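User: My collaborator sent over this chain with a note saying "see what the structure looks like." That's all I know about it. Can you take a look?
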Amino acid sequence: REIKYDLNGNNRFDGGSEWVAVDWVAWVGTYDDLINQRDGSYRILLCEDWTANAKSGDTGYSGFVVQPDGTFIIDSYGHWDKKYSESLKPYNVHNDWCWIKQAKFKISDVVGDVFTENISSMPQLSDSTDYTAATWSGYETALEEMNAVMDKQDATWEEINQAYELLQAAYEKLVMKGAGNNDDILPGMQQDLKDAIASASSLISQGRQKYTPESWTIFEQAYQAAKADENLNDYDKLKQLYDALVAAQKGLTVEEEKTDPPKQDPPLVTMKEFALGEESFEIADASGDTVRLTKGADKKKVTVNTVTYNNKVYRVVAIAPNAFKNCKKLQTVIIGANVKNIEKGAFNNCKKLKTVEFKGKTLPGMKQGFKKITNKKLTVKVQKALKKKASVKKKTLQKLKKAGLKVTLKKIK
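Assistant: Without extra context I'll predict from the sequence alone. Here is the result:
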């Protein structure tokens, strides 16, 4: 079991009252960390031990095997049944149930999500134009090597950690364009201004034509100013000229033509809402063919895709806020391809929810549609298009997390 020291936070060991035994935990670090009594890289919670005793009921004494492919196989005994342990009144560790469990995993699988989250906050390959070429080259190489290691099925923790340290070092050396004396980005700004002048020239040659006199005067003055100083070697001045010309061109306003207002068709008169059992729906658009689910049924399994009412089939395109809020029975929800939007808090506080399946080739908009989902066994199922590549699967993971579905790459099926 993990041992926690210094419970009062005074940075010293004050005797027997200063430690407690906690859960079955795997410590991950280097040999040098052990020798120098450092905390190491991190800990992995293998299983919670429910011994109601701060000093005993140990796990550990583990059978420990490492396979050639890096798979750890660990056996240990402990008190794993929370309900039974807490039912013993008064508690006696010798009467508590104790049995052997096995943990089987690869370090790379466990830590991959941690590194993925860290990498997602760093610049990506598409951000190259924001940094100087000299510093970006090394970072790009390190990022590509990191992604290659993360895509390896048999990557070891040492490989991942080494690649991440190199990436971190390259990241710290990155310099954004314009952070120095602007010499590195002056040529780019000179070319941007020339391109803007070329675009404006075609309009200048045609004359004012349909534009208002006020907007045309501003545009013409910005164009003349840019033409006069386009060969300057002053970045700030060139950028000022560029911004003014681009803004003036975008600000050109077409003079209004007096026309008769278009004839409008009379609005469609349709049913606004209906209910089926526990479920309620409202018509989503003027066509009357689509609906929005405003209240869902509280049962173990729910499918949201279509609904039939009065012999007509409606497509369910949205799930309203709080539609399934506090559903105590809901364990599985299947989101059909028709659903394009899951609004904020739609599945708020569904504590038993353990499986969410998306049938569409793209994920719907979700706006934190899944809030306070606490089931640690939560699994999300998606179509092949959303997980066929590691990079695509990572983007899918990021969108799921923003929606409130706290899953790992391994929990995306």
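A starting point for your reply to your collaborator: The chain is about 30% helix and 20% strand.
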